[in-house]
Amino acid sequence: MGFLSKLFGNKEEKVEELVLKAYMKGKVVDITEVPDPVFAQKMMGDGFAIIPEEGTLVSPVAGEIIQVFPTKHAFGIKSGDIELLIHVGLETVAMKGEGFDVKVSAGDKIEVGQTLLTYDLELVKEKAKDIITPCVVTNMDAIESISVLKLNENVDFSQEVANLKLK
């Protein structure tokens, strides 16, 4: 037995962190930069956002789809004890699903990197307030902290973007 395992014992505990992968190709920004007070003031939870370069959304985690909004622009995902909301664009609800092609349904089990949605990014630029796409933890009581690793960097699908430390 090595020195560290004598010191700390064998780790057989529950998962202590969850890594969030890039759910879009684009630039990662702080949640406070989202031009909408509901997200910027963390009313729904803490997280980050990506300014997308193309119209594809993939899952940042393995888990289950718990909600697909009827207007196709937002998804609820559960991974272990963590619940995430990904909201494609701002004021996209007014588009009533136009230009959005959802690939999953509530109850579906999903893998990291699985396509959830493809959409017409140019149409969103034209019809919505903004294309920025926030991802927030909606049950903040389940986590101790969130650290965004790639702030103000461009990311490609499935690169590690954030770490959640679980309670």
Automatic annotation (TrEMBL):
It holds the Pfam family PTS_EIIA_1. Keywords: Kinase, Phosphotransferase system, Sugar transport, Transferase, Transport. It comes from the Bacteria. This is PTS glucose transporter subunit IIA. The keyword Protease does not apply. InterPro entries: Dup_hybrid_motif, PTS_EIIA_1_perm, PTS_EIIA_component. It is found in: Cytoplasm. Residues 36-139 form the PTS EIIA type-1 domain.
